[in-house]
Design brief:
- A hairpin with a 2-residue loop joins strand 22 (283-290) and strand 23.
- This protein is 3% helix and 49% strand.
- The protein is an all-beta fold.
- The chain is built from 1 helix and 26 strands.
- The protein has a 9-stranded antiparallel beta sheet, with no helix packed on it. Strands 3, 6, 7, 9, 14, 15, 16 and 19 form an 8-stranded antiparallel beta sheet that branches.
């Protein structure tokens, strides 16, 4: 769309993955390899309520299964430390999911995703791991005083193949299910006697690739790690495996840049930027930034702001939308505006 003195070019529109109503941890390892890996369930990277993962040991980027990158763990010291977490606090269920490629089976157990109980770094509230025989184990406890309860898959995994694993702990129903590549598995194990919900306490630590960062290190690669604070259904597990599931009524907001109107008399211009946010949930707030500077916005679903441009060239316009409860940014979109 051309206007006097300006051309608007959509550079990219980035939609934060849907919250999935109960997605509380999401790690794709697509960011730069640094000390932190962003939790996409909380993309602003702040410590409240969920921390980004912090790399410990020699975890490195490798080619991803779906995206550009996955994370490789060395089986001896590398893991991702998620810190103290309330991901599984007072939850009727917990679902742990990840793509993995196993390089070697452990001597005993290798932990993939681990949420501890409140008073221990090594006792699980929820865990997904693999055994020395290459079988998948999902287990944990609801009350912090309960004993560990688990199920183990009958079928073993293959080495050096990307495989999608899901462990579903349904505390309320007192069941544990294991899924491999979207399909439910035959399992072994004793009686399950969970309390109806987990304790109303934080996990003292949560880790990826190890049990509490102390032992049971995983040797292999992981991608698209997901943590939910409820028990997914078989249909939902299959959709997560396929990468297609968005819960009904919980699609992320869509941000559209509708108009740019400008007068450009010389080296200065006032540009009116407006657009619309489509969202099933209530729009709580909209922020607009140009070249990093926050601009006053009028309206919510139909928003607009006036930007003073003082020089020709490319200018960055960024819009963020907060919808629903909890005050989290649910969508971002960025555009380029060329002046002159």
């Amino acid at each position: 769309m051309k206007i006097p003195g300006f051309v608007a070019v959509v550079c990219f529109a980035f939609q934060i993955p849907a919250s999935l109503a109960a997605l509380v941890g999401s790690y794709d390892f697509e960011g730069p390899l640094s000390s932190q890996q962003v939790d996409l369930a909380n993309p602003d990277g702040t410590a409240t309520p969920y921390d980004p993962g912090r790399i410990s040991g020699s975890a490195v980027h490798v080619s991803g299964h779906r995206g550009a990158f996955a994370m490789s763990f060395d089986g001896s010291s590398a893991y991702l430390n998620l810190g103290t977490q309330d991901m599984g606090r007072a939850a009727p269920g917990i679902t742990l999911a990840s793509w993995i490629k196993v390089r070697s089976f452990p001597a005993d157990i290798a932990s993939l995703i681990f949420l501890s109980r409140f008073s221990s770094r090594i006792e699980a509230r929820a865990v997904l791991d693999i055994t020395s025989n290459g079988q998948v184990e999902a287990g944990g406890r609801a009350g912090d005083a309960e004993g560990f309860q688990s199920r183990v898959s009958v079928a073993p995994l293959a080495l050096d193949e990307w495989t999608h694993l899901v462990g579903v702990l349904n505390y309320a129903a007192r069941t544990i299910e294991i899924f491999i590549n979207g399909s439910p598995q035959a399992v072994t194990g004793g009686a399950i006697n969970f309390a109806a919900t987990t304790a109303d306490t934080d996990s003292r630590i949560a880790t990826i690739g190890s049990t509490g960062g102390i032992f049971e290190f995983f040797d292999g690669e992981m991608d698209e790690v997901r943590i939910f604070n409820h028990a997914l259904t078989e249909t939902q597990v299959a959709a997560v495996y396929a990468g297609t599931w968005v819960p009904p009524g919980d699609a992320p907001p869509q941000i559209a840049l509708a108009k740019l109107r400008a007068s450009y008399p010389s080296s200065r211009a006032k540009v009116k930027v407006s657009g619309r946010i489509s969202s099933a949930a209530e729009v709580k707030a909209v922020t607009l930034r140009v070249n990093g500077k926050r601009i006053k916005v009028s309206g919510l679903r139909n928003w607009s702001g006036v930007v003073q441009i003082e020089r020709p060239g490319i200018h960055r316009v960024r819009v963020e939308a907060i919808t629903g409860e909890g005050g989290k940014v649910r969508a971002r979109a960025s555009f380029r505006v060329k002046a002159g």
